[in-house]
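Lab notes, practical 5.
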Amino acid sequence: MKKLGFGLMRLPLLDNNDQASINMEEMKDMVDTFIENGFTYFDTAYMYHNFKSEIAAREALVKRHSRDSFTLTTKMPTMFLKTKQDMERIFNEQLEKCGVEYFDYYLIHNLGVSHYEIAQKLDSFEFIQNKKKEGRIRKIGFSYHDNADLLDKILTEHPEVDVVQLQINYLDWDNKSIQSRKCYEVARKHNKDIIVMEPVKGGTLKITLQLCQLLLGQYALLQVMTASWLC
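Output from the prediction step:
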């Protein structure tokens, strides 16, 4: 698998004030270009784009490309779980919305202190492990937003997971609250595969790069003007 994924959380919109108004024609072009260039990994989640992202994945990806040509990931929304029955209901809904019979990766979404307590109370790890045994999931794991110590605790208590999704980029690498480097080191200590999210921090690092280029260009122009004046 090529090491670049297609996230379905910030899709093009027809109306910037309506997250559900996904521009499907533009998305289809993006999906086709992505696959034509040899990439396969797509990541969505239950609540993205006002609960429309998984449907968009079905329409732009699943219906238009063979199942063996892509890898699809979605997530169990811990923030919407009240009972164990919710997990079965939501999982079946996700299969239908995505139009697939199985998920390549299925993650417990957004684990931190409070969401881990929910997952433990409702036996969410057992649920996804059972779905894996049933053939409905190929690999199981969780996405994570908290400190390295809690991550170590979770991976110690749940060695059955295959993968962990972490927020990693150069700006957050040594951030004291996000702890990208420390979390990365913990995941590697437990020999878990890592899926990187926010590699350009929601696009802000691209903006930062463009700003740096602009400032450097202005600085270079100033140097030329100063040299010209001195001559």
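Observations recorded by the TA: Confidence is low (pLDDT under 50) at residues 224-231. Strands lie at 5-7, 41-43, 71-76, 103-111, 137-144, 163-167, 193-197.
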